[in-house]
Amino acid sequence: MAEIRPFRALRFNTEQAGAISELVCPPYDIISEEQRLAYLERNPHNIIRLELPKGDDPYQEAGKTLQQWLEEGILRQDEQEGIYIYEEEFTVNGLHTKFKGCIVRVKLEEFSKGVVLPHEETLSKAKEDRFNLMKATDCNFSQIYSLYMDPTHAITGQLDQLSEGTPENELTDQEGVTHRLWIVNDAAAIARICEAFADKKLYIADGHHRYETALNYRNYCHEQHKGTGGEDYVMMMLVDMEHPGLVVLPTHRLVRDLPAFDAEKLLEDCKAYFTVTQEADIATAEAKLKTLYDAGQKAFAFYSGGQGYALLTLKDEHILSQLLPEKSAASQGLDVTVLHTLILEKIFGIDADNMAKQINLTYVKQLDDAIAAVQNGKAQCTFLLNPTKVTEIRDVAAAGEKMPQKSTYFYPKLITGLVMNRF
To answer: Whole-prediction pTM value?
Structure first.
C-alpha cells in the first residue's frame, strides 16, 4: 500500500526573505493577475514567482529564480529529514474548526494499482503547464492534498502528540485562516508514522493535475536516464478522512449562452424526474437545501432571476441505475451525476465535452456570486447544489471511477510556500 518517507524540505529563510506571511500564497489556480501582482508588491520573494511564473519564457524564468534564491540563501534545504505537521484553523458558515495532517513524500503509483485513487477528471492543458514547470525547476512548490482511512484515528493521535509544542511557523492569511507548521525530526517517531501508512490507500482530495503531472515527470526522467530517485516520490499532505475539521463546500453551476433558453419549459420538463416546488425568496435556498441534504435527498435550487426560485427534489433515485447501468451505485447517487445526467444533458443538451470545455457551463464556488451572475445577465440561470459527502468521494474512488469536474471543493485550500520538495 502507500509508501511514505520523510524528506529534507526546501523552506524560506525568513531572516533573508522576510516574514513568512509575506512569502506564501493560495494555490496558483485560484489567483487572479491582480492578486499575483499584489503578492509580489508586498514581497518580491513571494512563492508565486516560482509557482505561477510570467514572462516570455515563464518556466525558464522560474528555474533561474529558484537557482538565484538558493544561491542567495532566500531558500534553504533542511539539514535533517523530517515530516511536517500542518494545521489549518478557520471559520466557515459560522462554524469554527480546524484540521491537521502531515506533509511527507509519497511514492508515486499508477492509479491502476489501487494505492493512490483519484476521484475527478483532469484537463490536459493544466497538466502541460505543471509539467513544463516541473521540468524547469525539478521541484514541487505545493503539496497534493490526500485523505486516508484510519478507523482508530491512531495517526491523528500521534500527530497531535508530536505537535504539542510551539509551531515552527504560524500565520493568518487574508481570509482569516490560521496556518501552523511543526517539524518532526525524531527518527523513531517518523518510523512509527511511516509504518502506520503501510496498509493505507490514499484518496486524492485536491491536486489531481499535480499528481498526474508527477507521474509524467517520473516517466520522463526514467526515459531520459536522469534523476536520482527523488522523482519517484511526490509531496503530499495526508489527512484522516474522518477528521471532524474536514469541510467540503459545493460548487454551483451557471448556464449561459444557450439558444432559446426557456425557464418555464425547463421546469415543466423537470417534473418527469423531480418534485418542483416554487419558493418565494432566494435567500432561503441554502437552508432549504441543507434540510434536504440532512434527510438524504437529492435536490437543487434552480434560479433564473427575480425574487423566487424553484426547489427540485428527485422523485426516484433508481432512475439513474436505468440511465447509467455501467456506473457504480456510488457514482449514480452523486448530486452532480443527477444534475448533469437528468437536467444538463437530457434537457439542456449540454454534453460531457461541452462541460469540459465550459462552452455553456461555468463553475462558481460562492452562492452569492452564482445568484449575482444571473441577476447581472452573465448567466441565464444557476443550479445551487449541496456539497459532496467525503464518504461519496471515497466510494467513487474505490469503485475505480471519477466524478465530473468541479464536484468537490475542500475548504480551506492548503497554502503554498511553507514547504517545498526538491527532487
So the answer is: 0.92
Tell me what pLDDT residue 267 has.
97
Residues 9 and 106 in one domain: yes
- Indicate if 310 and 418 belong to the same structural domain: no
pLDDT of residue 123: 65
Q: Which domain holds residue 94?
A: 4-247+411-422
Does residue 279 sit in helix, strand or coil? strand
Alpha-carbon distance of 21 to 418, in angstroms, equals 10
38 and 144, same domain (yes or no): yes
Q: What is the pLDDT of residues 44-62, one digit of tens each?
A: 999 999 999 998 999 999 9
**pLDDT, tens digit (0-9, with 9 covering 90-100), for 124-164:** 667 889 999 999 999 999 999 999 999 999 999 999 999 99
Q: Are residues 297 and 186 in the same domain?
A: no
Please give the torsion angle defined by the CA atoms of residues 368, 374, 378 and 383, in that order, rounded to the nearest 10 degrees: 80
Of the two residues 321 and 358, the one the predictor is more confident about is 321
Length of the chain: 423
Q: Indicate the number of domains in the chain.
A: 2
Using the structure block, give the residue that is written with the C-alpha cell 512563492: 47
| 104, 238 Cβ separation under 8 angstroms | yes
Q: Are residues 80 and 221 in the same domain?
A: yes
Q: With contact defined as beta carbons under 8 Å apart, do 38 and 59 qualify?
A: no
CA 211 remoteness from chain centre? 12
Q: How far is CA 228 from the centre of its chain?
A: 29
Angle at 190 between CA 188 and CA 195, to 5 degrees: 95
Calculate ∠ Cα 266-271-275, nearest 5°: 120
Mean pLDDT on 331-343: 94
